[in-house]
């Protein structure tokens, strides 16, 4: 992986960024050490951790991964006995916990180690390690794609710089190369015959090229060939769909140019089967979408998490400023939830949180209404374009629906069932205020509900 080319680093950096967001880590990087030197891809905020390049392989804490090609973790560097190898003031002073996953494309090709670091002690669970392993496979997919691109570029350079070996290279090329005139195939190399699943050249030579092109691409192919014959320049890469002799559809990348052939102007086309690559790209896009959802959704309740809520509130606050519309914020807290956990246990407590989140969802009637788990037993609701009376009505409906669940709570000081206290605030977006003022006022209203006996809705009155 070439650190000097940002364009090639971008897909991997995007994966590292997602790892950093998912695990809330200050530093995530890939260490590559083929000959005793390190190259790092960083994603994180700790300036202290960015001094890691000074560490060599022999003394680094990740040597277990490098030497044995197995995942490795430690919970706390200070208590693991590993800090004895490092002097005070070294670049490891900011490191407390670590997990490493080997990155090996094939048994003979190691590309490095995926390293995640925390400045606090941390025990990585088996599920977290499984997720890291899955994410490392995404990195390997990207690395393989880069290797394929490099191989293709090298092949093209050889073709351009070695005229005298042109025929040999064409015959031995792993990519399909064909020559066509007025839409008829005049020549095709062995790789092309194999790609089209033909038994011999005789089954291909002399046939219209459109016999092997998907009908959806016919017009495009005709137009491109006409342009190549008129302009005579190497065309831009295009993606086409071929159909083999056996009826199989292939995703193919094609470049074409005009050449003299047997005294005529013909088209030389170089085609590469990218069916596997396109499938990998689709899988990567799907995985990226899933990772984005993981990074913005609360894993227990399935509602948005605090990070997603902050983004949504910022966006709605800006919209409220532009359109001069009201924005309402509801803060909700489960009454005496600590007592509930102490009484029934955390597993039952989790079930309670899920049930409360479901009741809140039922109380929201518009697609634009936004629910998030604010933290612990607190939930936040954003109601765009909603006046205070409307927000109070929604809050009271939610409070009643939670109460109607009748979840037993023997250690509640106000009832024998789960209840919630609610605070409501409404503001019009203002360039002289921050969105945080809306949250703070709802929070003050929430604590007023608690002071006044809980299981009630209180609204904040702005002066």
Structure characterization notes:
It is a single chain. The protein is of the alpha+beta class and 463 residues long. The protein folds into three domains: 6-148, 2-Layer Sandwich (Beta-Lactamase); 162-277, Beta-Lactamase; 298-459, Alpha-Beta Plaits (2-Layer Sandwich), CATH 3.30.70. Helix content is 40%, strand content 24%. The chain is built from twelve helices and 15 strands. The protein has helices spanning 6-23, 63-68, 126-161, 166-172, 190-195, 218-231, 275-296, 306-323, 337-344, 346-362, 388-404, 435-451, and strands at residues 27-32, 39-44, 72-74, 97-106, 109-118, 176-181, 184-188, 238-243, 249-261, 264-273, 326-334, 370-375, 378-384, 420-428, 457-459. The strands form three sheets. It has a five-stranded antiparallel beta sheet with strand order 2-1-5-4-3. The protein has a five-stranded antiparallel beta sheet with strand order 7-6-10-9-8. Strand 6 and strand 7 form a beta hairpin. Helix 10 crosses helix 11 (388-404). The longest helix has 36 residues, at 126-161. The protein is elongated and about 95 Å long. The model is unreliable at 35-39, 54-59 and 86-91 (pLDDT under 50).
Number of domains: 3
CATH fold assignment of the largest domain:
Alpha-Beta Plaits
Distance between the termini: 59 Å
Task: Choose one word for the global shape.
Answer: elongated
Strand order of the largest sheet: 2-1-5-4-3
What is the CATH class name of the largest domain? Alpha Beta
Cα gyration radius (Å):
31 Å
